[in-house]
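Consider a protein example.
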Amino acid sequence: MPGGTRARAGAGSRVVAGLAVCATGAVLLAAAGCGGGGVGAGTGTVRSSWGDPQSPLEPANTNEVQGGKVLSMIFRGLKQYDPRTGAAQDMLAEKIESPDQQNFTITVKDGWTFGNGEKVTAKSFVDAWNYAALTDNKQKNAPFFQDIDGYDKVHPAGGRATAKTLSGLVVKDERTFTVKLRTKFSTWPDTLGYTAFAPLPRAFFDDHAGWLRKPVGNGPYRIDSYTKGSQMRLSKWDGYPGEDKARNSGVELRVYTDNNTAYTDLQAGNLDLVDDIPSAQLKNVRTDLGDRYINQPAGIIQTVVFPMYDPAWSKAGMEKVRRGLSMAINRDQITEQIYRRTRTPATDWTSPVLGEKGGFKAGLCGEACTYNPGEAKKLIQEGGGLPGGRVTITSNVDTGSHRVWMDAVCNSINNALGNDQACTVNPVGTFADFRNQVSDQRMTSMFRSGWQMDYPLAQNFLQPLYYTGASSNFGRFSDQQFDRLVDQANAESDTAKAVATFEDAERILAEQMPAVPLWYQNGSAGYSENISDVQLNPFSVPVYERITVK
């Protein structure tokens, strides 16, 4: 998610001298984790590894994976993505009609309510979207609403808003509202399964602080409790009207800050599900888990981003340095030695799960993503050299999975440049701290950015990350030609022409290299003998509601 995934965080637990220390101050045996041990969950409850979200769980303010997992359980939107194919299917939308791909009439299904009994209406969506878009509310996913007419008034590039609501949204009756976009966007309805577009109850606005303490949605689960640094408990909502009702009694999300510890807990029977197998365990996981190990393609790409807001990285000629650094990374060697076929070297900025018809084009990055140490050194010299004579790679290291590849990437760069101090690792202790540094534009060199698609469109891999002012454009890259091509592709009704135009936009990324594509990431998970019917969707998120407890 931007968010989209979104920055992807691993899961794990804080371990001190063999003990796991929870946020409540209690000290538990490490094997029990912070979730309270093997008997803490109720009968029929799935015990799963997790990480604390970066922000409170507002749909339009969550653009990272851990918070996104919860939102996917407690909310349902107009569209829902098929857990196997990723195809956008109607959920709360009875129909979405448009005569011109710019003006849409949306009819909401009858019979849906929120967990507090409030009815889900057209106004539930319009109020939520207006709240998300208004600059005063400082929602991270506000740019997802920039396609709606009037966004420039509620969320201007500078200064105060001159309107409180989007002029392109109009409620017609209890179940109908209209949407006017600023330009044609043929696949816009397919984006509406992303949780930023979820409806909100009046309770969200009437008692915002109370709602944030215990969010209420309209999905198959309800939040029972949350202790930061420890766990979140969710229970099945018996009144849920959708067809995808939970097949278990609830989910207990246990906070880990080291996914190796989560894996150990899984093996010991103290945890049911780990949805990010640590790289150190990949050589043993088949032997350890057998058929209870999942490894499948997912809509995830890992990159390192340059802080283009720093003149040292954005000045003329630095595109050669950025391209040279990309060519200094031996992706084939790193993915083979560390990830054992759970990663594939990236050759574009999207994902193979889209397929060629969906916008993936292998090799589009060209020579810039091909290991060539001689050319890498030459380009970096031609571009004026590394800023300050050296670079760093920054990421959180609390999950136990990032330090290994960062060291490998730096070693590759150092070997290519013949300088063992050219690249060093800058570790950040926690995911939350890392995300805050990135959001506050405090990066001075390369930093990790994992992207998990919000919906299966090439547009989602490009616009949120590289379009000027976009929600997850953390490097603050800006290129007018790139923006123009994205707008042109969005407006194109012919899918093949739209894909070709998105590819043209990607070629600008290959020239400018605001972010270095590293590898496409598979979804990986392991589960205990206590549960069955476990699957990951194309976003690499467990389909919690389908899991059954034995």
The chain is about 30% helix and 20% strand. The two ends are 31 Å apart (CA to CA).
